[in-house]
Amino acid sequence: MDLLEYQGKQLFAAHGIAVPSGEVASTVEDVVAAAERIGYPCAIKAQVLIGGRGKAGGIKIAADRAEAEAHAGAILGMDIRGPHGEGPFRVERVWVEGGSEIAVEYYASVILDRGEKKLLAMVSAKGGMDIEAVAEEDPEALVKEHIDPTRPFTAAAARPIVDAAGLDEDVRDEAAEVLAKLAETAMAEDATLIEVNPLIVTADRQVVALDAKVTIDGNALYRHEELAEIDAESIDDPQEAMAREKGLTYVKLDGNVGILANGAGLCMSTLDVVAQAGGAPANFLDAGGGSKAEAIVDALTVITSDEKVTAILFNIFGGITRCDEIAKGIVEASAQLDLQVPLVVRLDGTNSEEGLAILADAGLANLHQETTMLGGAQRVVELAGANG
Amino acid sequence: MSIVVDASTKLVVSGLTGREGSFHGLRNRAYGTHLAAGVTPGKGGQDVEGVPIFDSIREAVEEQGANTSMIFVPARFAAPAIDEAIESGVETVIAITEGIPVLDMLNTYWKAKEAGVRLIGPNCPGVLSPGKANVGIIPAQFFDPGKIGVVSKSGTLTYQIGNELKQAGEGNSSIVGIGGDPIIGSDFIDILKLYEADPDTELIVMVGEIGGDAEERAAEFIASNISKPVVAYIAGFTAPPGKQMGHAGAIISGSSGTAQAKKEALEAKGVRVGESPTETAKIAVEVLRG
Question: How many domains is chain B built from?
């Protein structure tokens, strides 16, 4: 789960990392009221889960009340796309914070390195810009050091990284302290990524986190009540919210071919094969292992609530999942949901013969059986028609 | 021969008294796996269908000679259960549980490393050596004994490919599900090494998916260390780019983690990559039969 900038900063503040004080607001009036309390100049920053906000016009400095009002009106409700065309992400909230006098901009991060199985700390004196570009053009400017999992990562342990990055000498102690606290935050809050760009030095030589990108491990939310609440509120897509409620793994896509498979790998593979057959998948839906009939009814409810869906492919290879349960679910869902769209069903694996017999007995008019994954993909693409 | 599990496996199951644990543990026994013991704290002295239950894994090792542990414990208690297994004296720990917090696994990974214990998983379907032993939830009926070693991040995708191999008349030396979590005990390279040394394995099928750089690392390793043919499949070409924040991930791995990048890395080292599970099985059979 990704946190918005202000949520990340609140987490930083709780762990003793200096951040500018600010307030979150979702209406123009509230932005102006916050700006009046905070004083001018202040920054008005769009809260969206994508980089490149500044370039897209999502971050503005207000010198007075009139500017605060104008910027709030412009930023709230705007659609921001990511640097690679992701999104659009609509701005529902802004973060209003006191303007910072920036002397220098650095970069600092702590991230889980899957390959090395360690946390990795990174620091650069070249902050405030695209860090990927820095890493490519001037790799020595980005200092990377793995954190020893068997020892506490103290400010003293962080100091050599800060030294190697060549930060201004008068702030190195403080920067090392911040780096140690970022690692502490990662471990305490189950974050797999914490990135601060820029980490600034103010005119009066304070080290302050001016931005926050934080990713929390979804598997650990059970031990972080407040973060779990943020997670529950963060889904705005109606199908995704419904799926979450029903305990299904669902990701909405742009196409018109509904997909249901069991297991994440087989489901991804099904999307690929449908795309290869010329189709456009409407969703990823992993029914999980051991799905019962009821879960299938839920899954079909979610898939068909997306109006773009014109045909659905079931690709099931039963291991723990029993094909007869899947078939019962399809029959039940057909009775309950008044399904209009064609269903292409490929059932293989555990109890597939029983499952196929259940489907044959039900005699559903809109049901098409296929015996292979490729056959199923071709058939569903034919039946779905063009993605409009 | 096979790898990881075989006729010498003596299995102890943590969570054998639970619903899932007893279902799969007994299913493994019915397949022919030597199920030596179960472990549930506080239930020592009981039995599940004649399998003795102990309070700790160490007791199961001492009393029954267990050498392989399978973890079926719910996610929030699983990391301590794996740690217990690592310290108990077994050689191999196979963790089926999904949803374990990744930073817990980070600590557990290093404990296993230090103790010299082979950890498979978590969030994996286990290991099957057809005709010899099955530890985990892999449906054994879709696999025959044979010459193809399979190593995979994904369960159901493995069944799909395994079944296509069976229909083509080929079987497997072993099938190892390494799991799809960010931190896993054994990665592709660890298992590739075992297949390289296994005289019964003539060809290796490697099944990967988007995320991380394990496939890219495996490609490098294959080029200089694996003499047997390797055929790969990668899932996730049409997966949507995640709402990615920050760029630190890409910097570390030196790769975007996309399916395309993985395919290219493997092909650059001479590994043939199938477009679909069906094509992958076809290529494997073709290469095996020369």
Answer: 2
How far is A311 from chain B, CA to nearest CA, in Å? 18
| Total structural domains within chain A | 3
Considering only alpha carbons, which residue of chain B is nearest residue A89?
A: B243
Q: Is A354 one of the annotated active-site residues of the chain?
A: no
> Which domain CATH number covers A59?
3.30.1490.20
Q: What is the CATH number of the domain that holds B68?
A: 3.40.50.720
Distance, in Å, from the CA atom of A279 to the CA atom of A264, rounded to the nearest integer, reads: 19
A162-178 pLDDT, tens digit each: 999 999 999 999 999 99
| Distance between CA atoms of residues A97 and A23, nearest Å | 7
The pLDDT of residue A180 is 98
Residue B1 lies in a domain: no
Contact B245 A349 (CB under 8 A): no
A201 and A86 assigned to the same domain: no
Kindly state the average pLDDT of the residues B201-218: 93
Pick the residue of A84, A114, A195 with the most B CBs within 10 A to test the interface with B by mutation.
Answer: A114
B277 interface with A at CB cutoff 8 Å = yes
To the nearest whole Å, the CA of B233 is away from the closest chain A CA by 10
Six-digit token pair at A333?
């869902």
- Looking at residue B245, its pLDDT comes to 43
Q: For residues A259-274, b (16+ Cβ closer than 10 Å) or e, as one string?
A: bbbbbbbbbbbbbbbb
ipTM: 0.90
Q: What is the pLDDT of residues B76-134, one digit of tens each?
A: 999 999 999 999 999 999 999 989 999 999 999 999 999 999 999 999 999 999 999 99
Asked if B50 contacts B29 with a C-beta cutoff of 8 angstroms, the reply is no
What count of Cα atoms within 13 Å lies in the side-chain half-sphere of residue A11? 31
Q: How many CA atoms does the CB half-sphere of B105 hold within 13 Å?
A: 30
CATH code of the domain in which A337 resides:
3.40.50.261
User: What are the E-state strand segments in B210-251?
Assistant: 230-235
Beta strand A79-80 with A89-90 is antiparallel
